[in-house]
Specification:
With about 250 residues, the chain is mainly α. The chain has ten helices and no strands. The protein is about 65% helix and about 0% strand.
Length: about 250
């Protein structure tokens, strides 16, 4: 069975995937539209503040995309847990560690690095969502609707600001795709990283258990070991960080 947008083959030969121009346009169009909407919102807020709020300070408008919880990630990327208020330990490490690494070629601008990671991950997440829907259902229209809804749903504003949600989305979808393709080593890696990204990663164990159980009776010992690791990986990631924080900061 094939679709017009992406060559998807179902059957014993496995799954083949070849991206084309239409898929890229759908993904990039949804991603760009979401950012235009956020930009219009910022412009409107700035206009209202300038007109009706003369003499007042609007901190979150001034902070732009690095505001609210993003200021914590920015501080952690610059100073680590030791140089941040102790309550900052509630933010898991993967996102701000990547921000610190990416900031090196950006002259140490951790805020810009975090924004780039967020928006790059959002683009990748929409692409992975499209792939997952097409591979699961073979329906290009359904995949298009799914990615547009993901991009424009109100909570998707978190995929524009310097938050870790879009990185978590990428890791979750990568885990789902890996499980669907029976690549449990990659599923385990994605689950482990997800556990280092957000504590809610433990919920990934539920679909992993279901998927692992499907082929368990016919699986050999090696495959069963990988499936068990894939199921446990998100919990291992979360627990590793909690043990680290408990040992270092009590």
């Amino acid at each position: 069975m094939t679709t017009g947008a992406d060559r998807i083959t179902f059957g014993g030969g496995g799954t083949g995937f070849a991206p084309n121009r239409h898929g890229l346009i759908d993904v990039f169009g949804a991603w760009l539209t979401a950012r235009v909407v956020i930009g219009i919102g910022f412009a409107a807020a700035q206009g209202i503040a300038a007109t009706t709020g003369k003499g007042l300070t609007f901190l979150h408008l001034d902070q732009g995309l690095v505001t609210w919880d993003a200021t914590w990630y920015d501080q952690l990327a610059r100073s680590g847990y030791g140089g941040t208020d102790p309550s900052g330990v509630r933010f898991f490490p993967l996102f701000h560690v990547l921000g610190r690494v990416l900031s090196w070629p950006l002259g140490g601008n951790t805020g810009l690095a975090l924004v780039l990671i967020t928006n790059g991950a959002a683009l990748a997440g929409l692409w992975l969502l499209r792939r997952l829907v097409i591979e699961q259902f073979g329906d290009e229209d359904l995949a298009r609707r799914a990615l547009w809804l993901m991009a424009l749903f109100p909570s998707a504003g978190a995929f524009v600001f310097a938050y870790s949600e879009s990185l978590m989305l990428v890791l979750s979808l990568a885990m789902f795709l890996a499980m669907k393709r029976h690549r449990w080593e990659f599923a385990a890696l994605a689950g482990l990283l997800a556990g280092l990204c957000r504590p809610t990663a433990v919920l990934l164990c539920l679909p992993a258990v279901i998927e692992a159980a499907r082929g368990w009776p016919r699986a050999k010992w090696h495959d069963r070991s990988l499936r068990a690791l894939g199921v446990a990986a998100p919990v291992i990631g979360v627990a590793s960080y909690l043990f680290y924080i408990g040992g270092r900061f009590g």
